[in-house]
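Long-time lurker, finally posting.

We've been working with Shikimate dehydrogenase (NADP(+)) (Castellaniella defragrans) and I want a structural starting point before designing mutants. I don't trust myself to interpret raw outputs, so I'm hoping someone here can both generate the structure tokens and explain anything notable. Sequence follows.
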Amino acid sequence: MRPENETPALLLGLIGEGIGESLSPTLYEHEAARHGLLCIYQRIDLDELGLGPANLPELLTAAERFGFAGLNITHPCKQAVIPHLHELSDEARVIGAVNTVVLRNGRRIGHNTDHYGFSQNLRENLGGRAPGHVVQLGAGGAGAAVADAILRLGARSLTLFDQTAGRAEYLAQALRTRFPGIPVDVGGDPAQALRRADGLINATPVGMRKHPGTPIPGSLLEPRHWFAEIIYFPLETELLRIARAKGCHTIDGLGMVVHQAARAFELYTNGIAADARRMAAHVAELLARRAAAAADRPTHPA
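Top reply, 14 upvotes:
Generated this for you. Predicted structure of Shikimate dehydrogenase (NADP(+)):
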């Protein structure tokens, strides 16, 4: 039995590539402390370990043996992890992607909180606009959740782009089945698609530190477009910066990561509700400190 004065502990982790800048450790640890829990959160960076999605079975087994309560799953493992789970939530099964795995009683239960996180972020930050005609870049694990969410939020049509052959068409077919009254197609020319679009979503990893640049030329954006980013490290991707400079209504990825984390926290703790506002304020403070520290670093001529 645990001594009466011992703080309950929660061991969590994140599996993905290039996650060295992820704020998930402090996000979960800070919120857990507010509920009287000691949370220890580990980054399991596939790049640093020289591993890939094929190593998911051994990583999941190791997490179980070490007593992890759960794992966050990010690029490129959100779909690859599914065959190694015992059970999926209804949402994860429909979307076909998992970003949260609860490890409990010898079972691995997959959930998708990306859908909830993106939906909440748009509801709070789209500024009363209707989504209208939407172009989405990326049809992978995160893209599957985001596409379902934007259609449920009332998009009039959705055009998908993805660099992996067949992936956009596979997602489009699944969405057409779930949303038979809404046109969902696969785009060929981003310039043409954006000429008739009201909004653009980047659900690719392009823009992260490991994948710098923009998934499409920023010149295709017009001030009338709204633009939503799901990346939050860095908080301002190059495409988000271009969109803001052009006068587009922009939504960064901070709200999505906070809301999906709040929902995941509740799953990991078997019902303890996280305070999303407090979590958002904490992350914003950390990002401000990072920005200040970067600004204070001395620059050296090449």
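Before you design anything, note these points.
The two ends are 60 Å apart (CA to CA).
The mean pLDDT is 94.
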